[in-house]
Specification:
Subcellular location: Cytoplasm
Order of helices and strands: HEHEHHHHHEEEHEHEHHEEHEEHEEEH
Number of domains: 2
InterPro entries: CofD (IPR002882), CofD-like_dom_sf (IPR038136), Gluconeogen_factor (IPR010119)
Shape: globular
CATH superfamily of the largest domain: CofD-like domains
Helix content: 25-40%
Pfam family, one: CofD
GO molecular function: LPPG:FO 2-phospho-L-lactate transferase activity
Family: Belongs to the gluconeogenesis factor family.
Structural class: alpha/beta
Number of helices: 14
Strand content: 15-25%
CATH architecture of the largest domain: 3-Layer(aba) Sandwich
Length: 336
């Protein structure tokens, strides 16, 4: 078999999301030789990304930077330099990652984040495709069950209210424009074998992508299997007390129909007193399972021990998750 034939035979995964969970899955899919496209949220307003966004008219680069590193084939030393974050006593550059500054510079040079990421992907020897969910920075909006509304990811999560719905709008300097994804991202969704959502913050990492109308429409139209990797822990200010079924119900409600085909659910218990809730202060409790609720939404459930315990935190075991994603790709729900 030639290299071109091998490439054609690789299953096509489109992974949609943001945050720290996304690179873990991408690294493991890459190790198993998947054909990967990552569609990454552009609605982050915190940390170094938020500061850069406030001073420079560019999409916040943090999630994109981490995805580039996850799919890069450069030596570790190159990636360590790209990821290096200046110390807090470096007042001018305090807290900024070098990669964020490079992405911001390229965005200005290339007149947009999409072209910048494609250029940088070549420079960083990325195995796969990385598409920002939008070529323009977006602001996340939320309506809570008490009727109030807030704008901005950090403001929404800090409110610690029950979220009813979220949506995205352009920033003030792009007001009036309808958010949309580049055609390359839409084509990838429609041509995929499997769409992977998560793991990541439900309201602030996954849904901001799906609320871009042409992405949401493409996910509904695609013939690919749509797989949701349910979070292991609930998140304060977002999914307090949620079961796995509640997560899926929110996704389905936002797109107006039951579109999630398969859900990956962790069955291993996080040991009592293991979590360091001071260090991982965004987490609340372990997500409980409601298989009956998942079945009622026409979901196939793949349950297993996907838990990775390290540094007194609970994470997904990327290799185990990737293996199940490959299993699902070889046995789509429609063929059960």
């Amino acid at each position: 078999m030639t290299k071109k034939q091998a490439a054609r035979n690789r299953p096509k995964f489109v992974v949609i999301g943001g945050g720290t969970g996304l690179p873990v899955i991408l690294k493991s899919l890459k190790k198993q030789n998947a054909d990967i496209t990552a569609i990454v949220t552009v609605a982050d307003d915190g940390g170094s990304s938020g500061v850069i966004r406030n001073y420079v008219n560019v999409v916040p680069p943090g999630d994109i930077r981490n995805v580039i590193v996850a799919l890069s084939e450069l030596p570790k030393i190159n990636l360590d330099i790209f990821q290096y974050r200046f110390k807090s006593d470096d007042s001018f550059l305090a807290g900024h990652a070098i990669g964020n500054l490079i992405i911001a510079a390229l965005s200005e040079m290339k007149s947009g984040i999409f072209s910048a990421v494609q250029e940088l992907s070549e420079m960083m020897k990325v195995d796969g495709h990385i598409y920002p969910a939008s070529n323009e920075p977006l602001v996340l909006h939320a309506e809570f069950t008490d009727g109030t509304q807030l704008a901005g990811e950090s403001e929404i999560t800090a409110a610690h209210k029950t979220i009813k719905r979220v949506w995205v709008e352009p920033t003030s300097w792009n007001a009036g424009q309808k958010p949309h994804a580049v055609q390359e991202a839409i084509d990838a969704i429609l041509d995929a074998d499997e769409i992977v959502l998560g793991p990541g913050s439900l309201f602030t990492s996954i849904l901001p992508n799906l609320m871009i109308s042409n992405i949401g429409d493409a996910v509904l139209k695609t013939k690919a299997e749509v797989v949701y990797i349910c979070n292991i822990m609930t998140q304060k200010g977002e999914t307090d007390h949620f079961t796995d079924s509640d997560h899926v119900a929110v996704l389905n409600r936002h797109l107006g129909q039951n579109f999630v085909d398969t859900v990956l659910v962790n069955t291993a218990k996080v040991p009592d007193n293991y979590m360091d809730y001071n260090r991982y202060d965004e987490y609340s409790t372990q997500v409980r399972s409601n298989f009956k609720g998942l079945r009622a939404q026409n979901c196939r459930v793949v349950s297993d021990n996907f838990l990775c315990l390290r540094d007194h935190g609970a994470f997904h075991d990327g290799d185990r998750v990737a293996q199940e994603l490959f299993n699902v790709a070889g046995n789509p729900k429609a063929c059960d």
